[in-house]
Amino acid sequence: MHVTRHTSVPSASTLRLSSALGLALALPVAVAFAAPALADESADAAAQAGTIVVTGRGLEEGQGTTAYDVVTIGRDEVTASASGRIEDVLSSVAGFQQYRRSDSRAANPSAQGVTLRALGGNASSRALVLLDGVPVANPFFGYIPFSAIAPARIGEVQVTRGGGMGAFGTGAISGTIDLVSAGPDAIGALQGEALVNDRGETQVSATTAQRLGQGYVIASAQWDKGQGFWTTPRDQRVEATARAAYESWSASLRAVAPLSDSVEIQASGLVYGDQRTLRFKGANSTSDGQQASLRLVGRGDWQFDVLGYVQAQNFSNVVISSSSYKKTLDQAKTPTLAIGGKAELRPPVGEDHVLRLGADIRSSQGHLVEMPYSATTGLATYFRRAGGEQSDLGLYAQDDWTLGSLVLTASGRADRWTIRNGFYRSLTAAGAVYQDDTFADRSGWNGNGRAGAAWHVIPALTLRAAAYTGLRLPTLNELYRPYVVFPVTTQANAALKPERLRGYEAGIDLTPAPHVSLSLTAFDNRLKDAIANVTIGTNLLQRQNVDEIRARGIEAQAKVALGTVSLEGSLAWTDSKVHQAGADFDGMRPAQVPKLDASATLAWAPREGWRLAATLRHVGKQYEDDTNTQALPAATTLDAYARVPVAGPVALLLRGENLTDETILTRNQSGSYDLGTPRTIWGGVSVQFR
User: Fold this and answer.
1) CA torsion, points 114, 116, 120, 123, in degrees to nearest 10?
2) CA dihedral over 582, 584, 587, 592, signed as positive or negative
3) Residue 342 CB-half CA count within 13 A
4) Backbone phi, then psi, for 642, in 5-degree steps?
5) pLDDT band of 94, cuts 50, 70, 90
6) What confidence tens digit (pLDDT) does each residue in 327-386 have?
């Protein structure tokens, strides 16, 4: 947290963060010295033969994951989306939802929260998103920096739908999305793509993987730029209306090397930047970030996974009046720092058990600096700063017990959380103090757990059931930062309580024939003290805890592969309601949550290197507001992808987004609309050298 000082003595918060940072990054190094003692020199047959296998991944999940609703997206599907955006890839999982229907080219970054199972209603993420074990959500806002995650770098995505804590980590109240980086076998010596669309926008990426001894290094970069499409309907455009112009870039470096036959070290770094313009000229937003992590993975008899990371992010935004078309708010900067780490040990307790004992920590601080402006005079009226700090220390244990065809899993977790040093200060344009609030520190212990069972009745049939609880702290943004989507103001609330989840599910997984899989899950979730944007006046909302959001529904997944042809489909139907006794919205559907969403992808790969695919996606009707008066109609879109080898390592790429040019409403503020992606055609080339 930035504070103006006249001395070089560091603040207490800085000392705490520095100490925690040192611990988070020193822990893997300390374990490195202990690794030879923990490592089993005969970890596997490959090690006995003198060959060290480096995976670049964490430890494999235990058999207990079969008790949960898990969807895996392979690399072929990850790298073959019509838009080339990772959020488009994730949309193939029914129940995946962003706050708005816009992707990361035409949405305010702070609205890119992610949730599952119809537990939305605000812009913060209720799903835990990990990249190689590191949480990627912005620590201040809770949004996911999608433009920084290049699909070309990803080898696999595993989505675990349903809440729960334990080894999943704090914040996973609607599920966990685990992004795993691709290795050199998938990437090759060099791969790259260059495309242009029918609006003259460009997308370029390049990734190289080089083996160094028995380890490897992967370097990657991507750059997207475009004038954007008109998000404003033609009949609502004025002279100040602007296209949704965007420019984003990211670069990453990842190194993996063995320390012994069964221990490997993984080091990763990521930097990125993003600029967007939304609706009006001058309504510009920026986001950028840097993060680094160090991870040790041991696969001997005593398995372990130790991780430390640090993240620095920033965000700025300018709000333009929809009546005077002048600047009304300049959110100049929102610097945020987060550090964290995890240590997990799996002792050898027999072939029938996978026991996980661990701890994780995450500490973050951030503040905003912003200046409101008069919509009539164009002059600054105030200078405001607000922010705070929060932390979570979790201790967990989980055991997967295999009893023949029955797998039992249970986990427990205790979290010590703190919310501290919260403040809100406002000065007039003349420098006089207008408001100066400090908020009481808060802390607490919370216990959560998850238990499940999977019965493999026959090789083709598995029955499963699970029950769980979970916890999510309010973000610093929800606690301390008001915001404006003109003319609507949403107030912060420093008194917000943590959200608490209770839920259960039951499902069936069926494999009636080779290359045919079907899955059906029914669930019932209750999110207590859910944080929602509640209407308290004309064009005025406030973040408040409501009694609960209850979401019940079914999720279905199917995959059929017949030779060179495959068909994948998913569907989620949910009955989700907000309950608050005496409120106008009691019994209403949460804002931005559809009742039905479904997708189906038909793909054909006639020979190696070829892929032709079409995706039909439907998102049902949803509402802009908590009182369900401003509707966003259902939308059905058709996307397509084609990769055709032409000569050697070169292939032709063709992509089509929203080929039927469906009208997609992403915002409805009393009849003022924003639109989603129109028909867009991409063409270009890809190269891959093995």
Assistant:
1) 0
2) negative
3) 25
4) -140, 130
5) confident
6) 999 999 999 999 999 999 999 999 999 999 999 999 999 999 999 998 778 889 999 999
Q: What are 41-91's pLDDT values in tens digits?
A: 333 434 444 567 788 999 988 777 889 999 999 999 999 999 999 999 999
Whether residue 23 is predicted with pLDDT greater than 90 in this model: the reply is no
All structural domains of the chain: 12-689 (2.40.170.20)
Do the beta carbons of residue 612 and residue 601 sit within 8 Å?
Answer: no
Q: What is the pTM of this model?
A: 0.91
Token couple for 52: 């060290």
Alpha helices by DSSP H, 423-519: 476-480
Longest dimension (CA), the chain: 77
Buried b (16+ CB within 10 A) or exposed e, 45-84: eebeeeebebebbbbebbbbbbbbbbbebebebbbbbbbb
- Name residue 513's beta-bridge partners: 516
Backbone dihedral angles phi then psi of residue 31, each to the nearest 5 degrees: -65, -30
Report the pLDDT value the prediction gives residue 486, as an integer from 0 to 100: 63
Tell me, what DSSP letter sits at residue 378? -
Query: In this structure, what are the phi and psi dihedrals at residue 608, rounded to the nearest 5 degrees?
Result: -60, 135
β-bridge pairing 622-623 and 631-632: antiparallel
Q: How far apart are CA 510 and CA 234, in angstroms?
A: 49
> How many whole angstroms separate alpha carbon 131 and alpha carbon 134?
5
Mean pLDDT for the chain overall:
89
For the residues of 485-541, what is the DSSP string, one character each?
ETTEEEE--TTPPPEEEEEEEEEEEEEEETTEEEEEEEEEEEEEEEEEEEEEETTEE
- Cβ-contact 191, 166 below 8 angstroms: no
Peptide bond into 348 cis (omega under 30): no
**90, containing H or E segment:** helix 86-90
Mean pLDDT of 121-135: 90
Q: β-pairing, 540-562 with 488-491?
A: parallel
H or E segment at 48?
helix 45-48
SS (H, E, C) 207-275: EEEEEECCEEEEEEEEEEEECCCCCCCHHHCCCCECCCCEEEEEEEEEEEEECCCCEEEEEEEEEEEEE
- Where residue 512 falls (left for φ over 0; alpha for ψ -120 to 50; beta otherwise) is alpha
Query: What end-to-end distance do the CA atoms of the chain give, in Å?
Result: 47
Neighbours of 431 (CB within 10 A): 7
